[in-house]
Amino acid sequence: MLLHGASMMCLETMPKTMDQQVSRRMNMPPRTRGGGISSASRRRPTGSERRRRVQMRDVEPAVDRDPVEHPQHDRDETEEVVEGVPGGPIDGSILRSFHNHIAAKIWLGEERAPLKLVNHGAKLQLWELDMERSRIYETVQRSGLAPLTSCSHRVASRPMLSAFCERWQPETTTFHLPFGEMTITLDDVASILHIPVTGSMISFSQPLRVDAANALLVELLGTTDVEASRETEQCRSPSVRLLWLREHFSTITDASSDDDIECATRAFLLHLVGCTLFADKSATSVAVVYLELFRDLSKVGSYAWGAACLAYLYRQLTTATRFEVRQLGGYLTLLQTWIYEHFPDMFSSPDLSYTESRPRALRWRPHVIPDTLQLVRERLDRLQISDVCWEPYVDHRAEHPFPEIAWYSGCIKCGQVVEPYHPERVLRQFGYIQTIPPRPFTPPRPDRSILLEQYWERWTDHVLTDQSRGRRCQYSGSGESVAEYMAWYDRISHRIVQPPQMRSGFTTDARSSLPSHAASTRDTVLRATTLSFMRHVISEGREQSHDHLWGALNEAYSILSGSDETSASHSTPSPDTRPFFSPPTFVYPPPALVDPQPPIVPPPPVTVAPPAPFADPSVPASDSTQSTTVYVRSKRTKKT
Hints:
Strand order of the largest sheet: 2-3-4
Distance between the termini: 146 Å
Largest sheet: 3 strands, antiparallel
Low-confidence stretches: 1-42, 51-82, 504-508, 510-525, 562-597, 606-640
Strand content: 5-15%
Number of strands: 12
Number of helices: 22
Mean pLDDT: 76
């Protein structure tokens, strides 16, 4: 009887419905038959319950949205129009993060110094493969990465690369210029670097921990556990220093054992990609996770190294668009050569000994341009379509044909980095008329690596169709677009980085070059900026067009006239209404704005009689005293 009573009490305390069971598990009050909460048990939720409910609302439903079948529909095509920001797009539905972009900060008057560049071009020469290391060199040749040993630039221009970073937009993975979008394509990677852009996608299941990195170093490089632990502890991450790789493996030659040569080959390849394709902001180390790609040296050439390099560079550019970032990583030789190829008249210096059988990165002589970041910004703000070389590889096609995978539209990946690739946004770079592209898609999560790999392996099914490509340009390299493209582009993008009234040349470099007693004066800074600009024009030589010289004089006048009153009444057209160095209707300043200068009149001739010792006694006195005309010209005399 007592057992029966106890059982009845337990049954009374147990929840009688499934809803009550779920409510008890979730620490929620039981619901009534109609779905509401019982009034007897209704109470104010605690803070932890409110946070739990918010998390539950933010969790996506367990719906398998396969990117293989629907890669471009993560965003609804009927999204609402987001309000724009000052200096940015009127319609913010495309560039949703522009309010945090460096260009938005610059428009509001905040400045950022030129980015520090991570460039290891000089370090590659510290570990060269000579005849004593021919076995390592042969393996590197078969890997497809051998061109990286010779085509890396030792010098990178901070103002030029920083100015282009300010034009990069993460949502579209393109540079937004005054006339439209441009980007680095798989065709650019293949032509500039001559590394494979097709093959298996570089993917890692999960980030590498330090203990796993130590085990990988012991297994694939033959180091001891103590050495591996000491190195990762010094890097404070699952990475190794580039210097450590050179010190331990650069002395191995063909006379060494087979195991040592195999380990040295893996170390060289890890050092190579750490200095080039996957240069990170540590500037001294490389992640050990890439060593897994060199486990089987016979399969190194089967990876799509070019696509991985491009995805990694896209992510580095995206990171550099944040105002607080001060460094730029990635393979900067690829970015710098791309600028040289597409803007040859602005920044480049060609190597006349180049032949088309070599990578296009060797076509140019890298140099640091004399312009400041401010001047490069203004040149890009005034850029026009005629300043762009839209198809720079026409002469290169005989040696290096166009890769069809450049038309692939989808996602590219490098380990945990997944970035969208949109050739439909830059049709002019392929010789086609630019149309209004579809909305950019959001890449899927990196943990869905299997689905991404399947999508990439079937890339031939995901290239742009002939209908999507549209019509070819009437003239090669003309950069044509449909009539409604620019109106659409004006609405969703920003054509200029700085407002016209802020283009005064007040830069840190200009101030630091002035004397200490004059650095605070506005007129001195203006004149120093003007002289810097005119020095660049003078360095281009005498063979310049009238339009070019007119633009230089116009720029110098606009800087020196500087004040708001002058620019309001006698200013030149703003960059969004006239192209760079194109002569529009110019309103000459009134005489009141120009200080009158007295005319330069040569001094009158002076008649001087020759001294007596030079008189000829055989000549009459009237002839010996004939006058000599002397013109005085800046401390020099010329007798006639």
